[in-house]
Predict the 3D structure of the following.
Amino acid sequence: MASPRELLDAALSRAVNLGNTSEIIDQDVLRRIDYVCRCISNRAGVRLLMSCMLAKMHKPEVDPRKPYTEIGGTDSFSGRTYDEQHLAEFISANRLPCNSTTAFLTPALRNRDAVLTTNTILVGRPRQVYSDTLLILDDVVSERVTAEQVLVETLRILVLVRDEKQERMKTLVAALHHGADALPLASEHIVTLLRQHLACRRSSRLPVLIVTAAYQAAAKHLGEKPMPLRGHLAADEQTGASGDVEICLTNDERVCTIYEMKSKRVTHDDIDRAIQKIMKRTTRIDNYVFITTDMIDDDAAEYAAAMYQETSGTEIAILDCIGFVRHFLHMFHRLRIQFLDAYQSLVLAEPDSAVNQPLKEAFLSLRHAAESDE
DNA sequence: GGGACAAAAGCATCTTTCGT
DNA sequence: ACGAAAGATGCTTTTGTCCC
């Protein structure tokens, strides 16, 4: 009996060998799998599909529509366990374009105890991801396709998507190196570049990367360095962090400065919450800085400033994101390209769930345009 | 422009199974 | 029968998008 990992590896090599041609003949089935695999806005379906197919291949007696042990009977199984124990590692090892965590905790798929039939209503967007996924499960039960065929086809498309992305990125990065002998960008050009990048959709992770890149570039000069970043959507309390970026002294793990990013206007409530976080900490924070991409409210700024006394020595400030970068770039003018390179590395290294593919490509295109525009 | 809903994230706890 | 280990499931918060 092959282990789940062996089954996955075998399916992957078959998928790679197939290349651009599918081995599934039924066009309806093919179209459904293709849609679920390529749906960018919801990556839960493809992972549900892989978990159920893997379970079916591993234990042929199970019903792929029953990935919840709560359903009972001998043909139900824990889809989440297959997902987390076997798929997670496989996905990250092969850098497949999937979410980093299980599909079974997403709202539509958690806390369920019923068979996933084509009549099941799963509430989520887009609807077609769920309806098509359920149809595919049914296709397997009705033996229109085998579980292995579905898994192989899924992997085939995921590999194609992965390679297409990689190729585009390579081209863009190569274009940048091409113009590397040109005059380096001026600080104000970099400000404009970042302003354009921040104006893109789904850019909410970028301010975190901007501040981190600044500290990375200037770490030696400042004697301070940023702590490793946490997940974009991870609640601060769960990860044990007090803010989005934490700065500590180079020779000391003690956090001394905290940055908290806000896409909206900073309110009194935000400041009060910050104070609670500061008070809870065992070590003192010197500086707590809000970085906002919205307007700065004069009242809020005054309120924040008044907290220096209240917290007995922690200064709270509100800065706007572009203002922060501009100040930094002019102050450390000679480090501006190091900063830009650090920012680029951070942007490209973020998982797609935090900085999506178009946003990564947008930065490379914008930088290329700016540098060849000199 | 604001409100509502859904997606994503990681951890804690409860349950079951297995071995002694 | 009891304790340990493995397995399964639920919770909560922040952020983004859609729709009115």
Remarks:
- DSSP finds 15 helices and five strands in chain A.
- Residues 41, 68-70, 78, 80-81, 85, 104-105, 110-111, 125, 201-202, 204, 232-238, 263 of chain A lie near DNA strand C (CB under 10 Å from a C1').
